[in-house]
Amino acid sequence: MPDRYLIRPAVIADAPGITRVHWRSHQTTYVEPGRVPRDKVEGWTYADRIRAWTTNLAIANDVFPPPEGFHRMGIWVAVVGGEHGGEHGGEVVGWANTSTGRDADGPRDLELEGLYVLDEFHGGGVGQALLDTAIGDRPAYLWALADNPRAHAFYRRNGFELDGTSKVDDFWQVLEARFVR
């Protein structure tokens, strides 16, 4: 694993890299452990994900306002290789996104909507750097798979605690637990 990575705000050109991390992470986190059937995960096609991330990134970068069904997010990527400091250099190996929250009754004004890192970069500080950049030490909440002990341990190390709220994700049909700090 390279020991150098760069965390930076995502740009529209990062949509394919974010999609690759999203796709691979869904395979290793949902499909391979048997949490979600392969056809369900792959039913949200790679092409559809690229379109969704391109739209999200265009909104995040103020190209246009959010259309119906979308909201403004902050989106960051972890990049290795290439021009480390360049706007478009390197390979995306992780990403994080935040917003003011998708839940009408959210316990905080900041939601960490997602944080994904390729498996081969787990344990190398990439996820921590993404979290630190995306939310710092601000109060926030997030939803994590109820049966993902690695994610639970990571969030607990960062001051998050389960608040006793859970839900079944409508799309994936998996149980999620809410963490708050």
Structural write-up:
- With 181 residues, this protein is of the alpha+beta class.
- It is built from five helices and seven strands.
- It has helices at 15-31, 38-43, 46-60, 126-135, 149-157, and strands spanning 6-9, 74-80, 91-99, 111-117, 141-145, 161-168, 175-180.
- It has a seven-stranded mixed beta sheet, with helices on both faces.
- Helix 4 links the parallel strand 4 (111-117) and strand 5.
- Helix 1 packs across helix 3 (46-60).
- The radius of gyration is 16 Å and the shape is globular.
- The two termini are 31 Å apart.
- The mean pLDDT is 93.
Brief synopsis:
The protein has about 180 residues and is an alpha+beta fold. The chain has helices spanning about 15-30, 40-45, 45-60, 125-135, 150-155, and strands at about 5-10, 75-80, 90-100, 110-115, 140-145, 160-170, 175-180.
Mean pLDDT: 93
Query: pLDDT below 50 for ≥5 consecutive residues: which ranges?
Result: none
How far apart are the termini? Answer: 31 Å
- Which structural class fits the helix and strand makeup? alpha+beta
Draw up the topology in text.
Blueprint: E1 6-9, H1 15-31, H2 38-43, H3 46-60, E2 74-80, E3 91-99, E4 111-117, H4 126-135, E5 141-145, H5 149-157, E6 161-168, E7 175-180
Parallel strand pairs: 4-5
Antiparallel strand pairs: 1-2, 2-3, 3-4, 5-7, 6-7
Helix pairs in contact: 1-3
